[in-house]
Amino acid sequence: MLAAAALFAACNKDEEVKNPELSVNNDKIVCSANGGFFTVDVKSNIKWTVKTDDQSWYSLDKMSGENDGVITVTIDPLSEMTDRNASFEVFGEDLKVVVSVVQKAKEAPEVTKYTVDVSAEKGSYVYDVPAGYDFTVSSDVDWISVEKADGKITVNVSANTSGESRTGKVSAYLDKDILFAEIVVNQGKLESSPLAPKPGELLIEEVYFTGSLIEGTTSSAADKYIRLTNNSDHLVYVDRVMFCKNYMDGFITNVGAFSTYPTLDTEGIAVTDMYVIPGSGEDYPVLSGESIIIAIDAQNFSEENPNAFDLSKADFEFNDGVIDVEDSDNPDVPDMIVWFKQLHSNTYFHNRGYESYAIVLPPAYETAETIMTNHHWTGTRIWDWTSPYNGENYHFEYDIADEDAFLIPAEWVLDAVNCTTEDTFYRNPWGAAFDAGWTHAGDFDGDISRFGKSVRRLSVDGKLVDTNNSTNDFIPNATPTLKK
Ligand SMILES: [Ca+2]
Ligand SMILES: [Ca+2]
Ligand SMILES: [Ca+2]
Asked: What is the pLDDT of residues 11-32, one digit of tens each?
């Protein structure tokens, strides 16, 4: 049969009856992910037509021809990580050739890896990754969010208020879960200045809680202040130093009643009102041996009352205007920041000495909110009273978690002084680890002679005495430091 066909063809050559021919020089185009131009030489002696599979990532410059010809194939770049395949047919008369097109997947680059240490402050950081890849990126922690662009990953880190260093991981993948980039973010915790005061460095030198007598009355002016002194040998910053008052009472009420609280000897101090010196860490330096004065009102009380002091140059003041209570404000004197205030009324120092005072430095990451949440004092308060009138015992128990009481950890406490009245003292609000003694102004509860008297820390050889026992460390009924 073959021989016969060949003979037939040969016999018809002269009559221009030719054997139809259709072939290509290359029936498999293999292209890289970059794409490009390829040619297919068609060898033929007939009319031919091209039919494609209609995929959009390649195109042909012609769809038909006659006799020999060249088809140019244009292939787009491939950004995905899998191969793709297509084919087109060239056909004419009964003949057909199939040209396959294979585009190889992009090769995954070597994984880009970063391990970075970032500060506790919030921030955005941009990291380079190989350009030209489609990728997805995500973080494994809620404090990091991510954005991407070609060749870049932006990592947005929240401020670290957790109190601990922390680590999060950002991972980027090409499709098919091929790891593309990995960024390990180590975030430090917020730290106080290295020159923030340590316990014992910044001391309560004086509390003038009585106020100066208003002549002809049994009351005193509001020229009250607390003096804090840098007893260290170097500069300290007082930014964020918190002033607070005791929560537990230290005196017996006038009917002889008292409350019993859970024992707090060493774990911390129970406080209620909390006020913080402004500043972000290194705004308020105090030199070695120097003091600051925090005034109830930074006003010149001596203008109206010759007994009273000029506190208009105080370093800080309690301004209740900031909590919407009417108060004087000296605009030149920065206000203490109120973190918690039990009563919606004017800040004062109780002029009989019913209050105890402490200064503490909360860690830099603490805020009013974190203290409310994490440092609420829990336990049961017991109120016990045997009536001297009828001999009956009255006993009540209260859940402290329902009260405005906060437990300041021992390690935050810089200094504390228990104050009370001499004749009604029954117990120190704060434990011996903080102040084993107590001090007073006036010799009995309500003693009028207390006005104009202060409690002042002893000084020996230019250094304040701090044995954490104010019975020994303080002078009761002292002359105020501001007295000329
Ligand atoms: Ca005030
Ligand atoms: Ca002010
Ligand atoms: Ca002390």
From this structure: 455 445 578 999 999 999 999 9
pTM tops 0.85, yes or no: no
Check if the beta carbon of residue 25 is closer than 8 Å to that of residue 15: no
**Which residues make beta-bridge pairs with 226?**
207, 294
Residue 73 has a CB neighbour count (10 Å cut-off) of: 21
Closest by Cα among 291, 371, 364 to 338: 371
Quote the ligand 2 centre to 424 CA distance (angstroms): 36
Ligand 3 centroid to Cα of residue 413, in Å, is 9
> CA-CA distance, 394 to 156, in Å (whole number)?
59
Confirm if 103 and 31 have CB atoms less than 8 A apart.
yes
Q: Listing from the earlier edge strand, what are the strands of the sheet with 474-478?
A: 316-317, 291-295, 225-230, 202-208, 454-457, 474-478
Query: Is pLDDT of 5 > 80?
Result: no
What integer best gives the mean pLDDT of the chain?
A: 90
For residue 73, report the distance from its CA to the centre of ligand 3, in Å.
Answer: 87
Task: Quote the ligand 2 centre to 289 CA distance (angstroms).
Answer: 25
The predicted-structure confidence for 426-443, as pLDDT tens digits, reads as follows 778 888 999 999 999 998
Find the 347 Cα to ligand 1 centroid distance in Å: 6
C-beta separation of 80 from 105 below 8 A: yes
Q: How far is the CA of 450 from the centre of ligand 3 (A)?
A: 24
The SS3 assignment for 11 reads helix
Question: 85 is written with which tokens?
Answer: 């395949």
Ligand 3 center–CA 58 separation, angstroms:
82
The domain limits of the chain are 21-103, 112-187, 202-478
Query: Is domain 112-187 given the CATH code 2.60.40.10 in the classification?
Result: yes
Ligand nearest to the CA of 223: 1
Q: Are 188 and 274 in contact (CB under 8 A)?
A: no
Centre of ligand 3 from the C-alpha of residue 253, in Å: 27
**pLDDT higher than 80, residue 42:** yes
Q: Token pair for residue 39? A: 């040619």
pLDDT at 1: 45
Question: From ligand 1's centre to the CA of 257, what distance in Å?
Answer: 32
Cα 393 to middle of ligand 1, angstroms:
41
Contact 340, 272 (CB under 8 A): yes
Q: Give the three-class secondary structure for 274.
A: strand
Do 112-187 and 21-103 fall under one CATH topology? yes
pLDDT at 280 over 90: no
Q: Closest Cα partner for 376 from 271, 276, 275?
A: 271
288 CA distance to ligand 3 centroid (A)?
A: 17
CATH class of 21-103: mainly beta
User: Is the per-residue pLDDT at 108 higher than 60?
Assistant: yes
Q: Which one is predicted more confidently, 123 or 250?
A: 123
Phi, psi of 3, deg, nearest 5: -60, -40
Residues forming a β-bridge with 144: 157
